[in-house]
Amino acid sequence: MFAYIARRLLFMIPTLFGILLINFAIVQFAPGGPVERILAQLQGLDAGATAHFGGGGETGNTGAGTGDMSSKYRGAQGLDPKFIAELEKQFGFDKPAYERFLLMLRNYATFDFGRSYFRDVPVWQLIKEKLPVSISLGLWMTLFSYAISIPLGIKKAVSDGSRFDIWSSAVVITGYAIPNFLFAILLIVLFCGGSFWQIFPLRGLTSENWSQLSLPGKVADYFWHITLPVVSMTLGAFATSTFLTKNSFLDEIAKQYVQTARMKGLSEQRVLYGHVFRNAMMIVVSGFPGAFIAAFFGASLLIETIFSLDGLGLLSFESIVNRDYPVVFADLYIFALLGLVVNLLSDLTYMWIDPRIDFETREV
């Protein structure tokens, strides 16, 4: 098993390299950029609507010359070329693209993400500030959705076709069809001092006096703030895993070894949890990495905005809009690395569920 883990860890290196290389190459042709954004602001233009000229613009091999910059940047007309060259040097665009990419790889190997272009603080500091929010949302949503979907899916499989199976399917599908941000707004109206009750706080992950609370008080305050955002995200998250669990159990129950176990006189609980469970759960566990990563980033963006939770999802979105490339690539690197690690943990969970799996003979 240790040899397999070592191979997987080594395989992460070329995978991360490929992810960063592809996205770095895409950025070279993306319109706009830090220099163009500043020029647009100086000219009083809409920075979000600016465009680049000349095959890759400021993110390409710009050089450090002080020639005519107007052919490269919209909004550069009338500005001193030396000023524009200084901007390029400030953002590192005076170096060739390949040199900037190699420098980025060297720094990322030691988790040195540089400084944000527009916040002028270390990127790692920004990430550490936002990370607790995203971890809270992603982790609790994933745990709660699996804690609901697995028992519910097993119950639906055992009682397939019954009234419970039918009405529970209707409830699950209805919850899945409701967008989580609309449900979040409904919860705010009901429980955050809208037209009904003032039970939960409207914004933030903790109260202003959190540092002054006792340990039990801090824990209670944390869960008090996180309840509505997690409930909003969990509403539709468990639908897919519920039906996946049900169908997986139905497939296993119909197999010959289950009939044989029953003929031997084993109880239904022994058959279900002693034989069917570990085989049926393989496909459910395989979906955990994707569910966690989706909750960690994609699903949390709107929830973070609605509940004023300043997490990585919102940080990544704002950084993309503002062309804050150090933050964009740092987030990409962390999410990619996290996804690879969670996939490895998922494989190790297979072994915990079914010890018959031999990792030493598996190919990466």
Explained architecture:
This protein is mainly alpha-helical and 364 residues long. The chain has 15 helices and no strands.
Q: Over all CA atoms, what is the radius of gyration?
A: 26 Å
Q: What is the approximate shape?
A: globular
Structural class computed from helices and strand pairing: mainly alpha
- Taking the alpha carbons of the first and last residues, their distance comes to 12 Å
What keywords describe this structure?
364 residues; mainly alpha; 0% strand
Structure, briefly:
With 364 residues, the protein is mainly alpha-helical.
Topology, element by element:
Layout: H1 2-28, H2 34-42, H3 81-90, H4 97-108, H5 123-158, H6 163-177, H7 180-191, H8 215-234, H9 238-253, H10 256-263, H11 268-286, H12 288-296, H13 300-306, H14 312-321, H15 325-353
